[in-house]
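Collaborator request, handled under Task 6.
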Amino acid sequence: MREPWLESGRLLDAIERELRALDLWEAVPPAPAALESGQPFCYDTLEANQWLQWVFLPRMRALIAAGAPLPTTCHVAEYLEEFYRESGLPVVGLIRAVRAIDQLLSAPRLA
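Structure tokens returned to the collaborator:
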């Protein structure tokens, strides 16, 4: 099965650029315990931007670097829309980039 590694990598870079442009990129990682949450998106221990930076991006980049199979479903944009709904932040570009990776990974793939 052919994986969309190249396009996924481009979209991950776009997500990072958007986080940086919004000044949501952090220099210091959260405490290790915050990353060990059993909740979806670590919503009980991390902000959405922290989860993207410290969990989602590294895991996806590790899969790409290893040539490992990528997830076959991804639904992160809906979470971000809800998280940032009343924030007042201009997150349209961030959500657009995340929605693009959601669609890419969730699309049927040819064997």
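The cover message to the collaborator said: "Helices lie at 5-21, 32-35, 48-66, 77-84, 92-106. The chain has one domain: 5-26+35-106. Please let us know whether this matches your experimental observations."
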